């Protein structure tokens, strides 16, 4: 590695953020390990290998143990520091965890191979970083305090400088600027970096997504302003919603005082390998991961764009996605201008989609928005819209303290709850991150039933291959001499000879059911059979989704406005309320059922 103090040091993100940004985090460990020796020989400052959606994708789709992935990469990369992204008190899940869970997760991550922890909070509420930062320092590892960059009336240079100073006071060994949406412009970057370098005595790192096409230029201005650490991605997984190309940035600084000293020929060989790997996952590519300067208008990160596109497709409303993009800035303003990064990107994006799909702003409010407005995620950067707050939570008190202070220790309870399905503490932590998903994974592992998802071919799929959720399979159908391009996306499990899918013809998705002729098949969940809602006492839902919990039983007395069901749509939970008071006469759904708008789910008389 170049010992020159002015040399640019590079962290390559191809093993985590690169494939998370472009192929939905689907790269398998078996495709990482063969190239590790060459990656290890380059001399990177670090390789980002873990965090973000790694856990979710490993457990949900790939049926891999994420801890075993980390162990394998540590063994295969003995000379390079390994780095992970950690969501502060959220860790890698979507809620705040008790301090003991955070402490044990950091300790086990360090023991399994992580050297550098990039710790951030979606709201830049630094109270949510305290426990994680202390745990990293206790493990003897590098604690990188992170500022989520965004643009709003309240996000000023002075605010960012103050946050950097406070992070250093908390023990940060370095400061990272996390530009998850690609909002930084070159001159804004130079100004921000110069201010931070002048304010703190620790190194400043820049992590910028290339979504708007400006990230490479921003990195150049950052280096001119004193930054010496940048995140890049191998060219095979660079550009678009990923990051500037490692090879391009290495070439840009060659022969200058900032020369990285990295070998372009060796980097090209690595790129050649990953280009072949990427072909394997072509079905997971999305048009929403390309370069798009509109991020400067909507401030929607690329991964959020592609996620929303899949969710709108599941709601049979892909044609209204532009309306959702227009609504996102309005919801963000209502909620006090949170930066759009997990989990706030999902919270804002899903609420915007529901506002559009229900035809009335905040007619239906997700439980996550309610939790946010109650202070459950921390302090918003600016004041929230009080009318929206009252509509969501009424007169309930808002918690102004550190959210985790309300949480009792959890590790002992979690270990008891998962029981002997957990073979070690790492398994308990996997269960903690994703309770239902983690339990299913651990149970199937015990029973020898772990089967990774099939990798669908982007075209000409073989017969019988399952359609990946949210990933279209393309066909060309000839009818009476006319050719039609058709995309089919699976949206629910098949049963017998029946399968529910979305069929997209000429860009318009329609939900259809394919069924074998002359064979009786019992109707799948959510497929109908329920009467249409026509009375005030008929409880229905405004969006397709799944039943998470039934809160009442036949014979119960309910009040008008009382929550009777919890549904999940677009990865967010929403309460379904009774429109009238009375007695529950019938319940037509159970946990796990698929439901669609207009069906009678509960009858109240």
TrEMBL record:
Against CDD domains, the record matches this protein to: biotinyl_domain, DRE_TIM_PC_TC_5S
Annotated ranges, domain Pyruvate carboxyltransferase? 8-268
Quote any Pfam family the record assigns.
PYC_OADA
**Does the record's keyword annotation contain Transferase?**
no
- Lipoyl-binding domain location, by residue? 530-605
Which InterPro entries does the record cross-reference, listed alphabetically? Aldolase_TIM, Biotin_lipoyl, Carboxylase_cons_dom, OadA, PCB-like, PYR_CT, Single_hybrid_motif
Q: What is the protein's given name?
A: Pyruvate carboxylase subunit B
Which organism does this record belong to? Answer: Salinicola rhizosphaerae
Q: PROSITE patterns, per this entry?
A: BIOTINYL_LIPOYL (PS50968), PYR_CT (PS50991)
Transmembrane ranges? none
Looking up PANTHER family in the UniProt record yields: PYRUVATE CARBOXYLASE, PYRUVATE CARBOXYLASE, MITOCHONDRIAL
**Origin superkingdom:** Bacteria
Which keywords does this chain's UniProt record carry?
A: Biotin, Pyruvate
């Amino acid at each position: 590695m170049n010992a020159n103090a002015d040399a640019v040091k590079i962290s390559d993100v191809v093993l985590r953020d690169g494939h998370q940004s472009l192929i939905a985090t689907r790269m398998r460990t078996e495709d990482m390990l063969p190239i590790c020796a060459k990656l290890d020989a380059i001399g990177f400052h670090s390789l980002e290998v873990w965090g973000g959606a790694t856990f979710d994708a490993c457990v949900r789709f790939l049926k891999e143990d994420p801890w075993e992935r980390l162990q394998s990469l540590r063994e295969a990369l003995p000379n390079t520091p390994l780095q992970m992204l950690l969501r502060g008190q959220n860790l890698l899940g979507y809620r705040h965890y008790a301090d003991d869970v955070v402490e044990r997760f950091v300790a086990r991550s360090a023991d399994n191979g992580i050297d550098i922890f990039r710790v951030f909070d979606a709201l830049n509420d630094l109270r949510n970083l305290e426990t994680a930062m202390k745990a990293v320092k206790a493990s003897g590892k590098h604690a990188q305090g992170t500022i989520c960059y965004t643009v709003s009336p309240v996000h000023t240079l002075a605010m960012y400088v103050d946050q950097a100073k406070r992070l250093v006071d908390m023990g940060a060994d370095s400061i990272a600027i996390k530009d998850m949406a690609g909002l930084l412009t070159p001159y804004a970057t130079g100004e921000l970096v110069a201010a931070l370098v002048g304010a703190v005595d620790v190194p400043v790192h820049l992590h910028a997504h290339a979504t708007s096409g400006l990230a490479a230029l921003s990195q150049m201005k950052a280096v001119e302003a004193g930054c010496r650490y940048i995140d890049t991605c191998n060219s095979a997984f660079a550009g678009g919603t990923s990051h500037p190309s490692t090879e391009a940035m290495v070439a840009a600084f060659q022969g200058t005082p900032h020369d990285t000293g990295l070998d372009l020929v060796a980097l090209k060989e690595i790129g050649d390998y990953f280009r072949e790997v990427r072909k394997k996952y072509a079905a997971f590519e999305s048009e929403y991961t390309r370069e798009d300067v509109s991020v400067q208008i909507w401030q929607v990160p690329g991964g959020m764009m592609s996620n929303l596109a899949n969710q709108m497709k599941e709601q049979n409303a892909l044609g209204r996605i532009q309306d959702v993009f227009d609504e996102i800035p309005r919801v963000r303003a209502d909620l006090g201008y949170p930066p759009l990064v997990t989990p706030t990107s999902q919270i804002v994006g899903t609420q915007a989609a529901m506002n559009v799909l229900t035809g009335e702003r905040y007619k239906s409010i997700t439980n996550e928005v309610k939790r946010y407005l109650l202070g459950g995620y921390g302090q918003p950067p600016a004041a929230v819209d009080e009318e929206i707050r009252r509509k969501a939570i009424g007169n309930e008190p808002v918690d102004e303290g550190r959210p985790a202070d309300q949480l009792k220790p959890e590790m002992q309870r979690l270990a008891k709850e998962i029981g002997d399905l957990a073979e070690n503490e790492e398994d308990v932590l996997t269960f903690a991150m994703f309770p239902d998903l983690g339990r299913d994974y651990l149970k199937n592992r015990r029973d020898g039933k772990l089967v990774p998802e099939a990798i669908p071919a982007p075209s000409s799929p073989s017969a019988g291959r399952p359609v990946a959720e949210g990933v279209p399979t393309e066909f060309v159908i000839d009818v009476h001499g006319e050719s039609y391009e058709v995309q089919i996306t699976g949206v629910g499990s098949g049963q017998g000879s029946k399968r529910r899918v979305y069929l997209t013809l000429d860009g318009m998705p329609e939900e259809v059911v394919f069924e074998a002729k002359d064979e009786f098949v019992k109707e799948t969940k959510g497929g109908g059979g329920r009467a249409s809602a026509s009375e005030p006492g008929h409880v229905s839902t405004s969006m397709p989704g799944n039943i998470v919990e039934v809160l009442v039983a036949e014979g119960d007395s309910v009040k008008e406005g009382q929550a009777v069901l919890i549904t999940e749509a677009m990865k967010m939970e929403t309460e379904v309320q009774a429109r009238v008071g009375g007695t529950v006469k019938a319940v037509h759904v159970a946990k796990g059922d698929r439901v669609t708008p207009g069906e009678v789910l509960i009858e109240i008389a």
